[in-house]
Design brief:
Elements lengths: L3 E4 H6 L1 H8 L4 E5 L2 E6 L2 H9 L4 H5 L25
Parallel strand pairs: 1-2
Antiparallel strand pairs: 2-3
Length: 84
Amino acid sequence: MTITTLSSRELNQDVSRAKKAAENGPVFITDRGKPAHVLLSIEEYRRLTRQRRSIAEALDMPGAAEIDFEPPRANIASRPADFS
């Protein structure tokens, strides 16, 4: 996968170059030197949006049941708000 970076001006001057680059990887489009947008091929976009998982599925990993992990319980005290 190749990552390409183009300024907004470069994108406006040569859209076909950006589209061709997106076939090989994401194209970062910058505004004033900072990344602002990403151009992806439709296949890559569909691949990224198809992988919907719950947080439990994302955290589940093979062998997790065998790991001993007992974090200490947090003791968080509350106090009344001072509105003066």
